Amino acid sequence: MSRTSESVHLWPAAAAVEGNAPSIWNGLVRHPWRMLALLCLTQIACWTLMPALVNVGPPYDVVEGFMWGREWVLLTYKHPQLPCWLLEISHLLTGSFRWPQYMLSQLLVSTTFVLVYLLARDIMGSTRALAAVLLMPSIYFFGWPTPQFNHDYAQMPFWAGISWLLWRAARDGRPGWWLALGVVSGMGLYAKFSTALLLVFGGIWLLYDIRARNRLATPWPWLGLAVFLGIAAPLAVELFRLDFLPLTYAAHRNEWVLAHRARLYYIG
After folding, report:
1. Is 149:103 a contact under the CB 8 Å cutoff?
2. Contact assessment for residue 196 and residue 190, using Cβ atoms and an 8 Å cutoff
3. Which of 238, 249, 240 is nearest to 73 (CA)?
4. 153, 51, 167: which is closest to 112 by C-alpha?
5. Would you kindly state where each structural domain of the chain is located, as residue ranges?
6. Beta bridge partner(s), residue 75
7. 101: CB partners within 8 A, 6+ apart
8. What is the structure's pLDDT at 153?
9. Dihedral through CA 175, CA 176, CA 179, CA 184, nearest 10?
10. What pLDDT score does 263 carry?
11. pTM for the full model?
């Protein structure tokens, strides 16, 4: 058989391969959870393996987290210690390997992707929600800095979770959403105190939105608030015992930033 005839016989196979590409893409779009799972697996694999192979040691914040994590303290002069507990747990479960500290950060980032998708799906539909989440890795903060696991990354899934649960609770009104909102809101403070800012704005939205405000006539938002206060109470007691040192640290840190960095540093 000549080379020409062989190539002719190969054309249908090549065309079939080319034709399968759009069908695969359409299948992923029709099943957004598959695309979302692929995104999360890619995020976890890439940003766990690359730092583990390239970095000679853990980033500074990770080293500090390991130092505090082994002490199992509730609060230090800087932050609450949930991220440090997670680092210590990863160390106890896996030993002195470097990859778990990188995977921990990517697990939280991927959880954030899922929660953002859930919120966006409720507001815009699954296709637009998927498009929004697929754009998130293009943001610098979800890429290169992620191996440096710290309080900023620990609070990310809580911020996304609070936003989604507040939306669901206000729209659905069932008690489970309010109770989950109370739990996640309380635990979010253990990740970083800046979660309180989101809670303040969430409360303002709750009073502004008519449909959400009507839910306050039911007992469930108040039960969720009681759950939140119960979870946050030990942190408040410890904050008082330390004479509000984390707030003093934040104020001094802010003065240094304003003196040595641009005034728009926090949003840049």
Report:
1. no
2. no
3. 238
4. 153
5. 19-267
6. 80
7. 58, 62, 66, 87, 90, 149
8. 96
9. -150
10. 58
11. 0.85
* The pLDDT value given to residue 6: 47
Is residue 174 classed as helix, strand or coil in its secondary structure?
coil
- Distance set, CA 11 to CA 3, 6, 23 (Å): 13, 9, 19
Chunked mean pLDDT (size 10), the chain, 268 residues: 48 52 66 92 95 88 92 92 94 87 96 98 94 94 92 96 97 94 98 95 95 94 97 95 88 72 56
Q: CA 78 to CA 80: how far, in whole Å? A: 7
Helices (H) and strands (E) in the chain, counts: 12, 0
The letter for the amino acid at 132 is A
| Token pair listed for 112 | 């954030």
- pLDDT for 250 equals 83
Contact assessment for residue 231 and residue 224, using Cβ atoms and an 8 Å cutoff: no
Distance of alpha carbon 252 from alpha carbon 260, whole angstroms: 12
Residue 116's contacts (CB-CB under 8 Å, 6 or more residues apart) are: 129, 132, 133, 136, 160, 164
Q: Which DSSP helix (H) or strand (E) runs through 224?
A: helix 220-241
Match 């590409």 to its residue by tokens.
Answer: 21
**Sheet strands (E) in the chain:** none
Give the Cα separation of 35 and 119 in Å (integer).
17
